[in-house]
Design a protein that fits this description.
Elements: H1 2-22, H2 24-39, E1 44-47, H3 51-64, E2 76-78, H4 83-92, H5 100-106, E3 112-116, H6 123-134, E4 138-143, E5 159-162, H7 168-191
Parallel strand pairs: 1-2, 1-3, 3-4, 4-5
Helix pairs in contact: 1-7, 2-7, 3-7, 5-6
Bound molecules: D-altro-hept-2-ulose 7-phosphate and zinc ion.
D-altro-hept-2-ulose 7-phosphate binds next to α3 and α7.
Length: 195
């Protein structure tokens, strides 16, 4: 089985190398948007399904607790964690609305939605983006493949960070690196260089 393992590592490395050539400008722009929101009393709401739900929570924990240095807590909410809210919305309305209804309650103008979908086609993430726009929030979309239904929904001030791969797992592996890059850039811009 070791050749299979080596193949997966190699594919992940190649996807990251391809991403390195295209993603830095979008990651920089996303970090600038997030920092501007945080400096204006805004917060970041994050959502996604499956592995991307884990990514949303990974990001919010690094904001609320810490990333790599001591600094004040930063405001973020993962919309994937409240099982009572999520099950009741899915049961009474539809699974498509599990994030959008939370955004319509919690989202304020100037907040940022971090919308994560490797295909760009998850209906509840699409509805989340509609809700964010209705609340005058900006959107950072982490996508893959061809951007799916999310790409054409985004407004000029939004940022899409689209990983150049058609394989869900490879896209997710780069999404985590993007999330850590965003955390690093947020800390750097808000609190300066370490040491
Ligand atoms: O982690 C994985 C696959 O690596 C899965 O849990 C995956 O996240 C789920 O199938 C998601 O429902 C896929 O949604 P999306 O990325 O297309 O929006
Ligand atoms: Zn996964």
């Amino acid at each position: 089985m070791q050749p299979r393992i080596q193949h997966m590592f190699q594919a992940s490395i190649e996807t990251k190398q391809n991403a390195l050539t295209v993603l830095p400008p979008a990651i920089e722009n996303a970090s600038l948007m997030m920092v501007s929101s945080l400096l204006n009393e805004g917060k970041i709401l994050a959502c996604g399904n499956g592995g991307s739900a884990g990514d949303a929570q990974h990001f919010s924990s690094e904001m609320l607790n810490r990333f790599e240095r001591e600094r004040p807590s930063l405001p973020a909410i993962a919309l994937t964690t409240d099982s009572s809210t999520i099950t009741s919305i899915a049961n009474d309305y539809s699974y498509e609305e599990v994030f959008s209804k939370q955004i319509r309650a919690l989202g304020q103008a100037g907040d940022v939605l971090l919308a994560i979908s490797t295909s760009g086609n998850s209906a509840n993430v699409v509805q989340a983006i509609h809700a964010a726009h209705d609340r005058n929030m900006h959107v950072v979309a982490l996508t893959g493949r061809d951007g799916g239904q999310i790409a054409p929904l985004l407004l000029p001030d939004d940022v899409e960070i689209r990983v150049p791969s058609n394989v869900t797992a490879r896209v997710q592996e780069v999404h985590l690196l993007v999330i850590h890059s965003l955390c690093d850039l947020i800390d750097h811009q808000l609190f300066g260089s370490e040491e």
